[in-house]
Amino acid sequence: MEYIPAKSIVNRTKDPSWFGTEYNMNIYRGCCHGCIYCDSRSDCYHNEDFDQVKVKADALRIIRDDLESKAKLGVVGTGSMSDPYNPFEKELQLTRRALTLLEAYGFGVAIATKSDLITRDIDVLSSIHRTMPAICKITLTTCDDALAAKVEPYAPSPSRRLAAVERLSAAGLFTGILMMPILPFLEDNPENVRDIVDRAADAGARFIYPALGMTCRAGQREYFYQKLEEEFPREDLSEKYRRRYGPRYECPSPNARALWEVFQEACNRRGMLYSMGRIVTASRRGHESDQLSLF
Questions:
Q1: Which of 22, 134, 210, 225 could be cross-linked to 128 through a Cys-Cys bond (beta carbons 3.0 to 4.6 Å apart)?
Q2: pLDDT, tens only, 256-285
Q3: What does the alpha-carbon distance between residue 22 and residue 292 come to, in Å, rounded to a whole number?
């Protein structure tokens, strides 16, 4: 395990409308889930050896000092650049110990992960949830374990993730799905979208937030195309992407408009939240407003 220096870890977010997160926290750098589409591979992040997980040295002391210095309570997001529940977390327990610090200092949390290891920390998340929002976001782009093994080769299977959603929901935690990215030409079909909504609802998820397409830029693009050629040699997918999107950053599904209607219908039928404003409002329901105000 390589340790890298850091001056600060809990920082103000650029977009607090994203699940109501006022702060962002990443203890790890890099990820070993091997997702072929990951935006964090992009050159702009200067994250060399992305598949090797690194840890920010003295992370817990830095997080404690960061939290002590904040003039305002809020929700701390984690998982934006690297999964906080990578395989090393099982032994290191840095994410778990960081959650106990958030609880001690009165902060909420919004976690994004592909790992069912999050269920280990139901006790701490439940303690946070008593006074502040605790939002559990599980990424799911397909319920097909075989397809997921190709596009997310080292992440826990969709079946395991849905089982985690069921456990988190049963514990009373505000839990839902990040349905992103839905990969063009692979996952952008009505059957896949309906399946995700129905399986998530059956597991007790409260919300689904979608991205009907993906991002693709320098560094990420080359890796993605190479993996498409390796995993789907007969479909000529990399050439389809080149012809349709060229060097564009945003790559929406060609079926995005029709898929959005399918998605809305499925969510409305199952009573699932899917607009960011309503998700944030629901996540804060039951928490007094003064808990998110100045000390």
A1: 134
A2: 999 999 999 999 999 999 999 999 999 999
A3: 10
